[in-house]
Amino acid sequence: MSWLNRMYSMAEDQVENVKAQVMDKAGGQVENIAESIGLGVETPEEPPVTEEGEEAPPERIGLNGEYDQSGLAKRVALAFDLDPDLAEVETLWVAQLSSTVVLKGEVPSQDILDKMVDVASQIEGASEVNTDEVEVVE
User: How many domains does the chain fold into?
Assistant: First the structure.
């Protein structure tokens, strides 16, 4: 089960469509995933606006360039889905507090956690990655 399906109940065909868009944008190279996710899979012509009519901050831009309260967390989950080393971790959750990515749960090794922090910190709009609620169960 994908990160986006497990955390946001996205249908697997939707997840596969989004993943295909990003991989196409990244030229098929996993190394370019974070850059290709950027502020959204589809960059909007006009920046999205908040309910108050202000331009949305980077952490509030969703998978398709729309305003999304959980946009940063969804883009991080998408990056995890696209990384073969991280796609199968099913005991960790991604959340966000403003521009901070919050990881919660368990990971199988410190190496995996380090890679998750590295990937999450590269997503545009992420100011830091909090792992206080992560347990390494080697």
Answer: 1
Strand pairing report for 100-107 and 128-136: parallel
Q: pLDDT tens-digit profile of 43-74? A: 666 778 877 888 889 999 998 888 999 999 99
Instruction: Judge contact between 40 and 124, C-beta under 8 A.
Output: no
CB 84 within 8 Å of CB 2: no
Query: Could you list the residue range(s) of the whole structural domain that residue 35 is in?
Result: 3-46+55-136
pTM score over 0.70: yes
3-state secondary structure the chain: CCHHHHHHCCCHHHHHHHHHHHHHHCCCCHHHHHHHHCCCCCCCCCCCECCCCCECCHHHECCCCCECCCHHHHHHHHHHHHCCCCCCCCCEEEEEECCEEEEEEEECCHHHHHHHHHHHHHCCCCCEEEEEEEEECC
Strands, sheet with 92-97, edge to edge from the N-terminal-most edge strand? 92-97, 100-107, 128-136
